[in-house]
Amino acid sequence: LCGRGGKSNLHPGNKRYRQVVDALKHKYRDVTATTKDKAALSQVIVEHVNGYGGRFLKKCANKKMYFVLSQSEARRKASQALRETREAKWTLATKKDSSKQQQQQSKQPNHHRHSTPTTS
Description:
Blueprint: H1 6-9, H2 12-28, H3 35-51, E1 57-59, E2 66-68, H4 71-83, H5 89-107
Helix pairs in contact: 2-3, 2-4, 3-4
């Protein structure tokens, strides 16, 4: 789903798509990659998504229906995703929540530890 915000970010198809994009970003950013190489890489992503039954969808202006993007529009979206350098807010929030959970767990007393009393 093309778009911004939680609904599109949390969609299972978009999560899978972002994993594919993230796995290929290093090749896209390779200094020796030509413009043709980069275009081919984005086309590979589009073909991969189509291969597992995925589609690139965009909501119509009336907000009630979706339409399938053309191959060239889908490739442009894939290229855009490959160029992104900042992490999406949802990934930062997930990492932040995970970090908070780890901190809270480390602050909780460990009931499995046995301390031996010291005598003076």
